[in-house]
Amino acid sequence: MSQHLPPPAFEQKIVTTDQLESLHEQLPHPIVMTNGVFDILHRGHVTYLAQARALGASLVVAVNSDASVRQLGKGPDRPINPEADRAAVLAALESVSNVVIFKDKVPLEIVRKLRPDIYVKGGDYRIEDLPEAKIVHSYSGKVVTAAFEFDRSTTKLLRKVRES
């Protein structure tokens, strides 16, 4: 007979928006934050997250809710993995301190509540185009765009699968 085991410890790394202000006090600083869909995790994602974590002592990842992924226009069948699954996979990563799911296209509320010391986005973004950057700069935080080490994306992966 199968035995029910306790939930893995990484599940406790998934937090709500309401917990972010207390996280700012609890997490070791500098706190780094990034965000994204992280639909089908690949080497590009985990490299980016490890590099972001290396910029500070803690890494909080804000992951788009299923509804916000649809707002981004990624395609009618996206996300492939539901938000709870994407959050759990991210939380299981060693480089990730906490994960929070956000419902808007851009995690402005998350940035305001967490007040990360460093905010990181992928190299396909320009800092001056990020509304989050204005918030981070308002309290003298730092915004960084990270060059991609690997040419990977969930969209490209799905295209490859669909064409084969």
Automatic annotation (TrEMBL):
Task: Give the domain of life.
Answer: Bacteria
State if Membrane is listed as a keyword: no
Q: Which residues form the Cytidyltransferase-like domain?
A: 33-127
Alphabetized, the UniProt keywords read: ATP-binding, Carbohydrate metabolism, Nucleotide-binding, Nucleotidyltransferase, Transferase
Question: What EC number(s) does the entry state?
Answer: 2.7.7.70
Look up keyword Nucleotide-binding and say if it applies. Answer: yes
Name the reaction it catalyses: D-glycero-beta-D-manno-heptose 1-phosphate + ATP + H(+) = ADP-D-glycero-beta-D-manno-heptose + diphosphate
InterPro entries per the UniProt record, alphabetical: Archaeal_FAD_synthase (IPR050385), Cyt_trans-like (IPR004821), RfaE_dom_II (IPR011914), Rossmann-like_a/b/a_fold (IPR014729)
The residues the entry assigns to the signal sequence are none
Q: What are the BP-aspect GO terms? A: carbohydrate metabolic process
Instruction: List the GO molecular function terms.
Output: ATP binding; nucleotidyltransferase activity; phosphotransferase activity, alcohol group as acceptor
Entry's PANTHER family? BIFUNCTIONAL PROTEIN HLDE, FAD SYNTHASE
The protein's name: D-glycero-beta-D-manno-heptose 1-phosphate adenylyltransferase
